[in-house]
User: Fold these one by one.
Assistant:
Number 1:
Amino acid sequence: MRKNIIYEMTQSESLVMHYLWREGAKSFVEIMTYLNEEQGRDWKKQTVNTFIKRLTDKGLVTADETGKNRVYYAAVTNTEYEQGKAVKILKDYYGGSIGSFLSALTGGKGIDKNFADALRSAVEEDFAEKEE
């Protein structure tokens, strides 16, 4: 998880991010066109600019200027964002404790052997992938 990134966004901001994650770097006009024509919004330039500015302030979007045009792109991948968001939720709501999270997930009933085995397998598989 990168520092100085705010791992939260509004539903409207997420439309911009998902577009950039899927399509790569885009100009303001391309973002505007996508939101208004493909997503059925009726947003003015100032509204879209506000969303982009907020995403930039959160460290989620960066911009490159080439000549007169500014091109926006995602500063983190979708996976990095999801991981950062998960860590934030774990920290904010469960004191960083996976045990507290699992207790909440199971309604305080604990986990059965099958779930524990599946969880252990998933962790071991993820750990093995990172070692390669």
Number 2:
Amino acid sequence: MWFNECVFYQIYPLGACGAERENDFKEVRHRLGAIEQEIPRLKQLGVGAVLFNPLFESERHGYDTVDFYKVDRRLGTNEDLKRLITIFHENDIKVVFDGVFHHAGRAFPPFSEVLAKREGTDYRFWFNIDFYGNSPYNDGLDYENWEGHAELVKLRLENADLQRYLLDAVRYWVNEWGIDGLRLDVCYSLPPWFMEMLRRTVNEIKSDFFIVGEVIHIGNFAQHVCPERLDSVTNYECYKGMISAFNSYNLFEIEHSLTRLFSAQPWALYTDKSLMNFVDNHDVERAATALKEKRNLLNLYTLLFTMPGIPCVYYGSEYGAEGDKSDNDYKLRPPFSAIDKNAHGDLYAHIAKLCSVRKNSRALAYGSYCKATLQNTNFSFVRETDGERIIVAVNIGEYDCTVRVEEAEGTDLLTGQVRNLNDIYLPPHSACIYRRN
């Protein structure tokens, strides 16, 4: 499918477009043009799909939705979004929305009506309300929320009227804007039957519609990556493994996860399944900040693009943008205009090359995974399918090394160098991607 073969690019629209932190629900500001201006660059980079974080009317950060049918006025109008998506599609770039179905903001009109009318409205059945309790907002009632955040009101998905509202919204997104997929926020807390309802709904309109679930702990979630539910889930295990392994100079850590998840062993969890891989996103430190040895940043992306799964680049990180989780995560989502495009001069070109390499390799999109060699600071692995054999070798250490994989000749897809794969020389902080000749 298309999503297995392309590189994703994640954009946080409210941050990237420089929106105000609080929505005053007054003036409409047409800011989506800031994203439109990036489209030629993204096409040049080799991006095949954009993943948007929340776009809909909200109180603050987008995950506190108040209207599932209307673009946040700090970004523009529905017509502005339709134009933007049309231009993405004209440039052969797919568009995936963030589906926030677990909770809504307190200003969501059905919840506002519950606060005003209490037992006097049927909207009370859209939420899990305790009329004998009291919320941190002193509402005279209490309600379930997302993990202790009282500003995010949990939706009671069992309610048939709420189901119709949400699924009709999804139909609207697909029919009106032509979106190609959804990221399911807090998917680990969504019931399996809801995933199945959603899958049936979108498949009635688009048979190749992509659904990826946000999952923090992926060990017990493999059953949900199936035709009836999800195409993929977020690979937090390998994200954490990559950052930790690089920072501790212990590549055994990430290789253990790769074998546990993707190898041909009968106990591997995700053999022949594609997870969405990343080295940073809107919820975690930027890779350039988290990585102690900045010279290994290129190696980190080489691994991201060659390991099994779907690579996703967070906006600005292709330039080595930094950012930590202070200031309520706002440093993780700066405006495009504030990103220093010279922060790490060779990283952008390296990622562009990796996009090209992956686009032209079925083995990297669909191939099996098998460890070849492993030391603390260097390791190599093989990806193979349909007669194509790719050998990836990475050295994160301070010293050069030689990796011996097999007696055969190969061409490095990064440099064009041809050499024997039983004698792969790696300088410090370097990597190579050989295709066996």
